[in-house]
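Researcher: Please generate the 3D structure of the following complex. Treat every line as part of one assembly.
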Amino acid sequence: MTSERRFPVRLDVRNGAVDMSHGSGGRAMAQLIGELFRRYLDNALLAQGNDQALFAPPPGRLVMSTDGHVISPLFFPGGDIGSLAVHGTVNDVAMAGARPLYLAAGFILEEGFPLAELARIVESMANAANAAGVPVVAGDTKVVERGKGDGVFITTTGIGVVPEGILISGDRAEPGDAILVSGSIGDHGVAILSKRENLGFETEIHSDSAALHGLVAAMVEAVGEIHCLRDPTRGGLATTLNELAQQSGVGMQIREDAIPLRPEVAAACELLGLDPLYVANEGKLIGICPPDRADDLLAAMRAHPLGADSAIIGEVVEDPHRFVQMETRFGGSRIVDWLAGEQLPRIC
Amino acid sequence: MRYIDEFRDQRLARRLAKTIAAEAQPSREYRLMEFCGGHTHAIFRYGVQHLMPPNVRFVHGPGCPVCVLPMACIDQAIALATQHPVTLCTYGDLMRVPASERKTLLKAKAEGADIRMVYSTQDVLRIARHQPHRQVVFFAIGFETTTPPTAVAVKVARSEGLDNFSVFCNHVLTPPALRTILSAAGPRGARLDGILGPSHVSTLIGSRPYWFVAQEFGIPVVIAGFEPLDVMQSALMLVRQLNEGRCEVENQYTRAVTEAGNRKAQALMDEVFQVRARFEWRGLGILPDSALTLGEAYADLDAERRFPTQVAAAREVRGCECPAILRGVKQPTDCRLFGNPCTPENPMGSCMVSSEGACAAYWSYGRLREPARAGAATG
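Model: Done. Output below.
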């Protein structure tokens, strides 16, 4: 409330734009923070008004993660850079089996960026954080000259606590383990693609961007022995499986016909010459657990709204080459390699 | 997916595999060259080779437009984008093709050249309209299939008066390449029993241009679609021709290819392009009448005339077997560089760049199958 009294002329959010003074550390910056950021992201820790948030750590092991977001376009079907910045980091924290506690956010704004769009992004971020129950408790704003950024970049850092007895790590996959995926793949990448101006195809596909910590909590509660969890973001399912195979020193055998895939996504990929196995997701996870617990894990995942289309897609095998192999729908078999180069730049 | 899943049906594939195994005579070998990179990609992506009996083998042909582009061409494109104040537009696959001194268009872009990746010629026109005061060059490559879109873009640019649009034209023609491969005798030539003919190219030029293969070289041709079942059915058709001693140009891809081809597209090509007297192909050398350039009526849109470039002689990577692989003489695993250090992340030769290149297909999908020869399988 004090902020409003400090600035006789209110910030022109409707028609104004970011200028260099908004990153100067002076009054203009204080006004931007007070009248725009704090308006949406209000919470008790942020309201402390210091350069840091002060809180007592909960008992247990803490995890911490950070993620930079540079997506283009900033707004896409099913989300925007604000909600994505919350979901991305909440998910990275959650993939340790953790309960996310707090987020911090750093904004890099480009001179000339419309304040109305910034307000939309911050509001969306606040809505995502509220829905996830993970408040943004610290933040930072910098401004770069026109042409030195692309509207807005957001880096978020998250902290979370891992329940007693849970040990989830990418190096724990063992031969025989079952591989599960929480739903259809490739939705995010194709949704982004459809909005790239030079592609000009129309689709109703929405990004799957979502906070997965609720699903993870349900999974961990049902099956404490989960060995690995990871969200297949950039590089898609194929690349994430290769990462896990590499880290655990194992091979993987998956079945193409078991992998959930929307027909619209399959069609878009067919048209553009993309392989959906390599297309990004922002609201899916891969789970790996002992084979005798796979059915219980699958049931727990399917019972959660974000895991309704979950499936068992294959198993971990012994393989000194650490290859991921796939039985194709056609009846052949092939290697599913790491992604080489970029299928699409700047999708998250 | 309708019209797609039907051509990837597992039961039909098994049935076809059984028929091929029953009809292929164990006493003889069937070495079938699939001309197109699209075929190569399908064979590996769907694991078609593993459904074939061991004596029916696919030999990979030169039909990958990125792979047959000589290094000098990429050098020239980089020179164009760095020696002149232009925006150079090109398809994504070309960005990582190695040029001389391990340069690529991607690296040139990182160093400040204005190079954009486009999905179609329409994107290039759009860019040209958006920046009327800056020259926009389209780096056009591809076999006959990709020539009509370039021709249309040229005509649209002319009719709209887009003075800042031009084309660096590197379109190539299929029949001369096929003739060169079949003419090469001795150690430079591949031993071939049959040809799986191009599918998309043939929708344009028809099946007639392949008659010389059967008539002059006595090798049967089956024009084959790009779906895995198309490839298998075409292999069966070739096996039957060989067993029966026939030597014909047959058409498996009847849903898109006719004998005469697409006359409207052909007329468009004739109007806009003219045949180059000579053009260098990677692996095949300098071939007469094997590529296209803009015809005299559109010569003012020719980027080579508008922007002269200075390029030193191209230097190929030593040990790279792309040329022999493109002629069907060697397999990717015969190359000393395969897998170490040449991989899709760090390509030394063009065949490792495009997903239609034989080396990239071997590496990404099939390296486990050739463990004895692929020394770098664990890399």
